[in-house]
Amino acid sequence: MTTMVRLKYWGALAWRHSLWLTLPLAILLSLWWVLAWLRFSSIEPAVLPQDNASFGQVLDYEARHLLAQWQNKFIHRSAPFGQLITPVQLMVPTRELKALSHDLPQSGKNYVKGKLLLADGYHKIKLRLRGNHPRHWRTEKKSLRVKMQGDKLWRDLNRFELLAPADKSLLGAYLSAQLAKLMGLPGADIELAWVYINGQSNGLYLLSESIDEQTLINHNLMPGDIYAGEVAKRDAYSGVDNRLFHHSGLWQKLAHNSDHPRTQRTSLNLLVSWLQQPQIDYQQLRQLVDYPMFARFYLFHQLIGSTNIDQFHNWRLYFDHSRGRFFPLVWDPEGWPQHGLESDPGALIDALRQDPVFIQAVRRQYWQLDMPGRLASFVEKAEQIRRELTTWVGNDPVRSIDLQYYDEQDYLEASAALIQRMKQAFAITIAKPDEVPKAPEPLKWQGQRQFNGVTHIRQPVEVAAGSRILLGSGAVLIFHHRVNLNGTAQQPIEFAALGEQPYGAVVLQGADANGSSLNHCRFSGGSAYKNGVINFTAMLSLHEVSDVAIDHCHFSRNAESDDMVHGVYAGVTITNSTFEHAVGDGLDLELSHAFIANSEFRENAREGVDLMHSDVVLRDVTLIDNLDNAISAGQKSKVRLENGFIQGAKSALLVKDSSFMRVTHSELTQNGLIAKVSHRNDHYAEGGQLYIYRSKMYDNQRFFDVEKSARLAIYDSYLWPRFSSDKKRITIDETTNDYQPTVASAQFKRYKKEVEAFAQLDQLIAPQAMADKRGIVNEQP
User: Are 286 and 353 in contact (CB under 8 A)?
Assistant: First the structure.
């Protein structure tokens, strides 16, 4: 057959079957065009003009998306998640998904119901779309905001964001958040996640913590005010100046300190008003803004070259009333952008950059953190993450950034370029700071001194034995440097009210007061001090100060305050001291660590010792007739009570909200309740855990109140009357109900794992073999 004949044959065959060839193609092309038009016509009219996409862009995206869907039906690749990727399984009814997208962007702001799959099953959630830019919601890979329901936390979060990646490198925001963590900056933690919706893979996302009260808890910060500055794009106000540091009313409050009204904005009003003055008073600004942390924050943004924070959006500020200062929170960082444009972060950073003290603070932070060494290691880690992520990029069924699809090669090129820009940003030169001037010579106080109003002492102070410090009505005495009270048993130092009205507070504040000592002193007649900026809740307040030694001191009869002695962000050793007749708590410690020995807490109107987020050892302490709880341990506290004696409390022990307490060689008698172990706050994943070893509990009115998510375990102790429980959350071993001390050694080997939570405390202050002074066996577990 000649060539011409063959061509005629195949041509006739093609013509005869052309309908079967062209019809599927026509249907496919029509489907492509219709889907593209539906997407374009339903979404683009709602997009702001500057973010509009053309129909051609939508056509191109739809073609690539159809091809990707076809490939995913026939090509199945998988790899173990490992530690780099966090899987997230969401279940959302189809009607709820449609409700989110039926009228974008407004419909995306309404929460719908769904479920999150965890190790113990599905848990109820609510979710909505998030983000102002249409890249967050106009394709299949939509950014989501998820809220846990009830008291359930996931990864210590009750809210989190699932963010569609913003650039083909996929790593800008993730590595920026890792650098912030490395530099000790609080803010939103970010992980890489793989999201499934109704069993269908939706690929790579960024899992970001939402900034709220939970953020403060997770970063060991006191409850306080969190302000969000977001007035860009659709959030902008018409007809007004939208620069955040020009008007405090532009900020939204995400969290607040319950001791102050939610509507109160005193600190923010002050900051904004001071920044608008023709001549900024830097002495004031340094008191209201935490220079070391803002210096670290400024340095961080220099190192990532971010343009994602400006004078209109992406600001998060935290105000801590216990310290009276603003702190920055890292939010939505997009490091090492390709365009390299500069942004204007606003009046606060502008003002700080003009203060030589702030420039010195930036230099000091750079060298104190050893940033040259840390940055070199960080680049190596970034290279490793980049390589490891390549497989997952290939597996992603929706490899799009907004309307642009990408492949593994695009990712490799973009991520390599990002790391190159990172290296260039890290090559900055920071001069070493000037030497810190030496502390001034100490003041010498002797005899009697009187103070009225609020007095700041900015020098070290030595107080001679026998001195009397008299404070007028509401007076506050704040020591910013080390103070040594050198009292003796024969000549104690006394702090007392000048008249009949109580004074405010005696305060040790700041790192320069570290190492202060209070020996043979007496405090009485004080109360507290609070204004819109600072809150000293106790007669003696220890704020941001460590290595404080209190020995042979007596605290009594305060007035009109929650606490008699209060420590926050503090480290203190208390020995041979007495706390009695407080109108509230005798001793309150928050975010602190303490060793308390040979001390007494008597007849306080509420708790003898009240703890929040604190690590405390109590050894040879007596707590008698405290009207509420003798010891209250809450909010992730770790407590060791050794050789204690508790009598006459409404409840001897309260352990709550992810706290641990271990009691050994102690005696609990004539209390209303031996122990309450509970879960009160939804911001904590579980209830408290209480372990009691080789202790005596008798003549108490009630035994135990243990909630479902809490745990109580008692081993080798004396408990009278006999008590038993069939609840799994309560464990009482046989030796407790049939007390035989000789069995103890074998029992404790079995329960060793249950005290691992106290390892840090044991390293700090080793347990002792207790003296047998109350008839309790003296072996130490």
Answer: no
Using CA atoms of 210, 213, 217, 222 in order, give the dihedral in degrees to the nearest 10: 140
What are the DSSP E strand ranges found in 381-425? 400-401, 404-405
The continuous run of DSSP H or E covering 671 comes out as none
Whether the CB-CB separation of 489 and 514 falls below 8 Å is answered with no
For the chain, how far is it from start to end, CA to CA, in angstroms? Answer: 100
Residue with tokens 């904005």: 265
Q: Residue 72: which of 251, 222, 200, 263 has the closest Cα?
A: 200
Task: Print burial letters for 538-550: b (CB count within 10 Å at least 16), e (below 16).
Answer: bbbbbbbbbebeb
Tens digits of per-residue pLDDT, 586-629?
Answer: 999 999 999 999 999 999 999 999 999 999 999 999 999 999 99
C-alpha to C-alpha distance for 571 and 408, rounded to whole angstroms:
52
> pTM for the whole thing?
0.86
As a whole number, mean pLDDT of residues 741-761 equals 49
List, in sequence order, every beta strand (DSSP E) within 648-715: 651-656, 660-664, 667-669, 673-678, 689-693, 696-698, 702-706, 711-715
**Amino acid at position 137, single letter:** W
Distance CA 660, CA 314 (A): 37
Given a contact cutoff of 8 angstroms between Cβ atoms, the answer to whether 543 and 569 are in contact is yes
**Are residues 163 and 173 in contact, defined by beta-carbon separation less than 8 angstroms?**
yes
User: Which residues, including other chains, have CB under 8 Å from residue 488's CB and lie 6 or more apart?
Assistant: 465, 519, 520
> Which of 214, 191, 161 is closest to 684 using CA atoms?
214
770: Cα within 13 Å, side-chain hemisphere: 29
Burial string for 97-120 (b: 16+ CB within 10 Å, else e) reads: beebbeebbebbeeebebbbeeee
Band the pLDDT of 58: cuts 50, 70, 90: low
Q: What residues pair up with 116 in beta bridges, in sequence order?
A: 90, 123
The answer to whether 384 touches 419, Cβ cutoff 8 Å, is no
Pairing state of beta strands 517-519 and 476-479? Answer: unpaired
Distance between alpha carbon 324 and the CA centroid of its chain, in Å? Answer: 18
Which residues share a beta bridge with 448?
Answer: 468
Burial class (CB in 10 A: 0-12, 13-18, 19+), 508: buried
* CA geometry: angle 265, 266, 272, nearest 5 deg: 85
Distance between CA atoms of residues 545 and 83, nearest Å: 37
